[in-house]
Write a structure and sequence with these properties.
The chain is of the alpha+beta class. The protein is built from seven helices and 19 strands. The protein folds into two domains: 2-80, no CATH class; 95-349, no CATH class. It has helices at residues 2-44, 47-58, 65-70, 73-80, 163-169, 230-235, 298-307; strands at 110-111, 117-118, 124-130, 135-141, 147-150, 174-177, 197-199, 202-204, 214-218, 223-225, 238-243, 249-252, 255-256, 269-275, 281-286, 310-315, 324-326, 329-330, 346-349.
Length: 357
């Protein structure tokens, strides 16, 4: 019997060893395959494909190094920062393009100016999106006074909060991730924003400035994009706002941003905008970094905003941070391999509006 048990043990060990070898070979084959796929993207495909690959990985926190395997620092720099025409002069948000027209909430279905239906009368319309390389969700908040900056000022520098925690803290019904944050190597704790934060008319982290992508809502519930300084935000009487330092602005005063400012890779995205027809706030989240959906470019993001009637829109933090919470659950899938990430800010949707009308 002892010999039999030894034989069985040897058989199990051999099977385990064989399985391990198969696993290692499979991983090696995948690594080699991915290496040559990326090599082909960099040198075998068109310049457009190469540039898209470089910009995509550069927009991540953890895998920027992939482009450096195939290209020199000078080549990468030329792709990421090509010579561009002189930057256009500062453009102030034209508030006259937005007409605030808040429908009454009720049990009856409401059809918005673009034909989308608020079937349950809660003032929120959720529209699924599908593009060639992404899926996403557009949340139309019919009453702009319901959208505020979700942040916990006393926690800044101490801890970040998940979107669902911000929604719960303000007894709200929905939310998306907000501005950028200090995130070395993708390991940041979401407690340190990378731009100014404004909550209920109070200004925090002013020393961080506004970057290229600050967005704020003023005391008349009009969304502004593009500021030169913190003082600009104060002059516009911004009450709620945050930023993603590189931005970019997607749509301003009814026009899509210059093409050179929208050069990007494909990644998960989050954006906020406002319709001119009724003042509804548009909250956009796009999934990505998955085999069936890589994500959207900035240009595609801007085109979606225009399609939904945005006169002003700005890109927020994306990638692993992109999340949308609505009615007790996350609507989209996270791209983060470590789960839902904590953040210093969010845009959340209150249960009721604050406007007088």
């Amino acid at each position: 019997m002892a010999n039999v048990r030894k034989t069985r043990s040897d058989g199990v060990g051999a099977l385990l060893l064989k399985g391990l070898c198969v696993l290692l070979v499979t991983v090696l084959v995948l690594v080699v395959f991915l290496y040559f796929v990326m090599l082909d993207l960099c040198w075998g495909h068109t310049e457009i494909s190469r540039n898209l690959f470089v910009r995509t990985v550069d927009e991540t926190s953890a895998v920027k190094f992939l482009a450096r395997i195939y290209l020199s620092p000078e080549e990468i720099e030329a792709i990421l920062h090509p010579p561009v025409p002189e930057a256009p002069s500062f453009v102030e948000t034209d508030t006259s393009l937005v007409e605030i027209n808040i429908p009454a909430q009720g049990s009856e279905a409401y059809v918005d100016p673009l034909g989308y239906v608020d079937e349950d009368g809660d003032g929120i319309i959720l529209v699924p999106l599908r593009g060639g390389n992404y899926i996403g969700y557009m949340m139309i908040v019919l009453d702009p006074s319901r959208v505020i900056m979700g942040c916990i000022p006393e926690s800044l520098g101490g801890r970040g909060y998940k979107v669902e925690e911000y929604v719960a803290a303000f007894d709200a019904v929905a939310g998306i991730n907000g501005g950028g944050f200090y995130d070395p190597g993708g390991g940041g704790d979401g407690s340190l924003p990378d731009t100014l934060l404004v909550r209920d008319g109070k200004y925090y982290c002013e020393d961080l400035g506004v970057g290229q992508g600050f967005v704020g809502i003023d005391d008349k519930y009009i969304l502004h994009v593009g500021f030169r300084s913190v003082q600009d935000a104060k002059d516009a009487n911004i009450q709620e706002g945050c930023g993603f330092k590189p931005g970019p602005i997607l749509v301003q005063n009814g026009e899509i941003a210059p093409e050179e400012t929208l050069a990007s890779g494909r990644n998960p995205r989050t954006a906020i905008g406002q319709r001119g027809a009724d003042g509804a706030i548009l909250l956009l989240v796009i999934e990505g970094r998955q085999p069936s959906r890589l994500g959207a470019t900035y240009l595609e993001e801007a085109e979606v905003m225009l399609r939904f009637g945005a006169v002003n829109a700005c890109n927020l933090d994306g990638g692993s941070s992109s999340m949308m919470w609505y009615n007790g659950e996350y609507i989209n899938n996270t791209a983060s391999i470590i789960g839902i990430r904590p953040l210093p800010s969010s845009f959340i949707v209150l249960k009721e509006g604050r406007a007088d009308s």
